[in-house]
Specification:
This protein is mainly α and 361 residues long. The chain contains 12 helices and 2 strands, in the order H-H-H-H-H-H-H-H-H-H-H-H-E-E. Helix 5 runs parallel beside helix 12. It starts with 27 loop residues before the first helix and ends in an 18-residue tail after the last strand. The N terminus is likely disordered.
Amino acid sequence: MAGDEKEEEDYMNMTFAEEPAAPKFESSIQKQARKRREAEIKARVKSKKEIEEDERKAREERLAISMMTDKSNKGLKLIEKLGFKGGSLGKRDRDANEGTDASKGPGRFDPITVELKDDRGGIGADAVKKRKVREAMEKETQGPKADEGEYRERVAREKMDRKLEGQLKKAMKVAEGLDEDEEQNTQESSDEKKGEEVLAGTAAHLAELKESSPQVDGSKTAPKAKQKRLKDVNILYRALAKQRLESNWHHHQKQELYKRLESSSSRLPTYIDSDEQDPDYKLAFGKDEQLQKDEADNLELENLDEEDKELEQFNALPLEERLMKLVKYMRGKFWYCFWCKTKFEDESMEGCPGLTEDDHD
């Protein structure tokens, strides 16, 4: 049944019939249609982009033709009249017998090619740009490489500075608290002594105590103690007091702004709760105008504008030195070890390993 089997078609060797050629003779209708198409193509106005593309193609086609092969070139005809017979242009290798000053290497076989310049840069601008880019790349590649050891030292130093700043702030708070406790104990002891003298004295002393002591019947609040001037604060924790004073000042300004906004909105008809007029309610929610006025008066904001050279000099010291001054101050005055977090009974401070943090490791 081999003869009945259909031969497999070889698709790789298939041939296709050529496109039908144009008719040798065209009718009048075909001729009119052809002329109409040609006229439409010729009459169509080309866009700017199409014109530039046609110019570019024509320029490239013309430049692709060598001057040495184009016999119609006027430049070639001119140099032929001057004696040019073909070959390279310019100086060529001389024979060894003709002299030793001969230039090396053949001349140019083709004239200098034309390169279109489409920017406003001067001659050689591209070479300058390339040179600058090359120098920048060489500088980056050949520049000093970062030392791994130096980087680790810098990171470790920054970490240590952050740790010392935290310890310094904690030491300031502890030293300030110890001084306040001592002042409070001294004030209480003086008040007790004065009370004993009054109880043992005459009625005139009792009357004087009544006039000077605050009323406790709730009609008036106790007068607040006048805030200490910033320059009178111990230099060891004066920076902390200044920071707190600035924070209070900003809080006071915010409260004043809220108060003005509330007073401006109160002109509109609003509901007034009777409980809000209660003095205890105002005191609890911080709406007592007299209390706010007293707090604002006690904030000595002029201290922020004063120049404190002593504080500037202290802040200029290294963190380690400032921290050590605070540690020595608490140990010498209060027998308190900042690292042990313990207040000892005597000056010997028995049981404390030492003065520095490393001694407590």
